[in-house]
Amino acid sequence: MKNDLGKERIGHIDRAMLIEYGRWRAKKGAGPVTLGIDIGVIKMIITHAEAVHGLGISSEPVDLARITLKRLGLIGKGTERDRQLTRDELNRLFRCFDDNARLTLPMTRIVKFAVATAMHLDEIYRVEWRDLDVKRRMLPIRDRNDPRNKTGTDQRIPLFDATGFDA
Question: Are both 44 and 96 inside the same structural domain?
Answer without folding.
Answer: no
